[in-house]
Amino acid sequence: MKTRIILFISALLLMPALSGFAHQSEVIHGVVKNAETGEVISGVHIQTDRGIAGTVTNSKGEFKLQVRNTDKILSVSHVGFASIRIKLNEKCDCHKWLEIALVPEQFRSGDLLITADRMQMQHSGVYSSSKTKSVEDHMSGISGLDMVTRANMAKDPVIRGMRDGRVNVLIDGMRLTPACVDGMDPATAYVETDNLQSIEIGRGFENGNGKQSAPGGSVNFSMVRPSLNSGLKASAETGYQSVSRQQFYQGSVSYGEEQWAFRLSGTFRDAGNLQPGSGSRIDGSGFRKGNVMASLLYQPSESHRFNLRYIGDFAGKIGYPAMIMDTRRADAHIAGLEHAWSNPFSGVYSITTNLYMNRVEHWMDDYDRDVTEREVMRDMFMPMYGETLTSGFTSELNASRNDHLFNLSIEGFRIDAFGDMLMEHIDPSVSDMYLLNLGDVVQQNLILSGTHTWFVGSGWTLNTTLKGEAGMNRLNNEDARATYRAEYSQDINLEPSDFAYQIGFTAEKEISSRVSAGVSLSSGTRLPDHMERYGYYIFQPLDGFFYIGNPDLSPERSTQAEIFTLMGSEQSRISGSLSAWVNRMDNYIAGLRTDDLFKQMQNMGRATLTGFEGDLFARISSRWIASGSLSYVFGTHQELDEPLPMMPPLKGQVSLQRQSESVQLEGRLRWAAPQNRIAEQNSMETTTNGYALLDLFAHVPLSRAVSVQLGLENMLNTFYTEHLSVNSMPAPGRNVQISVRVGI
Ligand SMILES: [Cu+2]
Known about the structure:
Helices cover 3% and strands 55% of the residues. It has 744 residues and is mainly β. It has a 22-stranded antiparallel barrel. Strands 10-9-14-15-13 form a five-stranded mixed β-sheet, with no helix packed on it. The structure holds copper (II) ion.
C-alpha cells in the first residue's frame, strides 16, 4: 500500500495575514512531525525541486528555507520515513508556515542520526547502522567533540576542549548527575545505541537553544519513542568484537495501536580484556553490563501526547586498569513523563512538559588490586560509595507570529548527592578511617530562558537568546560542615546562592541559494557545580590530584564569538560547514596546586580557548560519497601562562562510502596530530604521538528481515594512545566486529 501523504497547514497561525516581502525570493518556515506520534523530527532534509536551496530541521523539528518564486516543489526526506513532495503555492502566502507530517517507513531499523549545531553529520555512513557499537564510538568521529577515556567503556564527552560541568549531557532533555566522584559514570554510560533515535550536539553556547546551552556545549540523547498504529514489531541483534572479546545481545519488541504504543528493549554486553595495538591484553579491563528500556506512549487526542519512559542500567564489575580502583557495581534508574500539547492556543504551536527523577548508585573498590605496591595511598583499601538523585521538570513553549519564532522555557531541578569512602589498612591493628567526599549536598536551580528568531527578509535571520538561572546550595551533613569550617574559616557561608545569565545574538545571511554565513556572539556565566563547591578529597584521575571544593567560588564567565558558514544540503553534490570560534573565560574555575598531592578549587583568572571545525561532504556519483572533517582547539591559561590541560590535538577523518540497496561499504581514515602543548606547572600531563588508523565497514542485507554488519577497525593494528586517555591507557588495536540483526 502506498504511504499516505499528510500535509497540515496550520490555519490558526495563518490568520495574522502574512505579507512582508513580495520579492523574488521569500522565506518559508514550519515544523516537521511524525504522522503517527506527533513528535517533532530533527535532521529532516527539505529542499526545492532543483536541489538549489535546502535545509535541515533543528532539534525542535523547525526549519526555515529561502525559496524563489520559481520554485514549485519542496521535497522532504528523512531516514526511516517515507519521503514526500509538497507543491508550493505561487499566488498566496499560505505556505509560509508549514506543518509537515512524515509517515514512518515500515520494516526499517532506523539509522542513528547525529547532528552538530545546524549540520547533520553525514560521515557516520554505514557505520551508523551498527547497534553493536557503543554510543561513545558513534560520537567520537564528530568534529569538535572528543572523549575522555578511562577504561574500555563509559567515556566522557569533551566539546571544544571543555568537559564536566561546562558541558550539558542530557537524556531526552533530562539531567542526570554522575554518582562516582572519580568520574567513572558519565551519562553516556546509561544510554544504549539501540534505544537512540538521534544525538544532538551543540558546540559552545547555543543561541536559539537556551534550554540546554552550556559554555562548552551540550549533548542530548533523544531516545526512540514507540510508534502508534505500528502493530507488533520485534528485533534482535547479536554481535562480537574481537578487540575486547565483547559479546553483545540486544532485543526489542514494540506494539502500537491507534491511541497507544509501547516499546520494550534490553541489551547485554560482556567484554573481556582489551587488546592494544602491540603487547598483551590489558589485565582487568573487562566489564559486564545490562540495560533495559521501557517506553509507553498514549495519545488520547490529536493535540495531547504522553510518553512515560524508564531506563534501567546495571553494571557488574567494570575494570579501570588506568586507575587505582574498579567499579564493583553501578545502578541507574532514569524515569520521566513527557506531555506534548500541540497547538494549545492561537499562535502557540507546542507546549512540551517533562517531569523526571533519575537515581544513580555507584560502588567501587580496590579489593582486586595489590595495594602494597602502589604510590598513592599505599597499604590501604579504599572502598567508595556514591549516590545521586536528580529530579526536575522542564516546560517549553514554541510560538510563531508572522516572521517571528519564539521559544520560552522554564526548568527547575534539584540534585541530592552523597559520597563516602573507607580507608582500611591491610594491617588489622591499624584502625579504619572514614571520609565523607560529599556530605549530603543539595543543589536547587531554576532556569528561565527565551529565544527569538526573526526572519527579517533578504536572506537575513536574527536570533536573540536570554537566559537567567538562580541556584541555591546546601551542605547538610554536620561532619562535612565542620570539616569545611576547619578547612576555610568558622564563618564561611556553606549555603551560597548565586545567579547566572546568558545573552546571545546570532545573525545569519543567505549569501546565495547554496551558501549562508553568520556570526554569533554570546556571553554568560556558569554556576559552580556541587563537586566544585563541596567535593572533599576528590581524586581526579586526569591529573592525579586530590581536590578540595570551595563553597566560596564565584560563577565562571565565558564570552564567545563565532563565525560560521554553511553550504548545500545532503542532497546537493557538495555540502559542508566551517566554524571558527574564540572563547574567553574569566574567573576560570580550576584546582590550584597546594602541594604534590592536593588541589583546592579556585577562580583562577583568565583562560582562552580558540579553535575551528570543518566538515565537507561530496556526492561523487549516485553511489559514491566522500566526506571529511577537521577540528582543532588551542587553550591557554593566562594566569599560569601555560597551555590548558587535556586539550585535544588537531584531528580529522576522511571517509568514502558506497551506498546501495544491496551491499553498503565504507572506508575510513581517522587521524590525530601529536599533542605537545601540555600543562606542566599546575598539572601533570604527558605528550602524545600522532596516529592514523584505517577502518572498513560493510552492511549486507541477506533478506528483508536479516542483515549482517561487519567491521574491521584499526586494520594495521597500530599502537596508539589518545591524548584524552587517563594515565595514557592504550587505545584498542585491530578489531574485527560482526553482528547479525533480525527484524520483523
Ligand atoms: Cu567510581
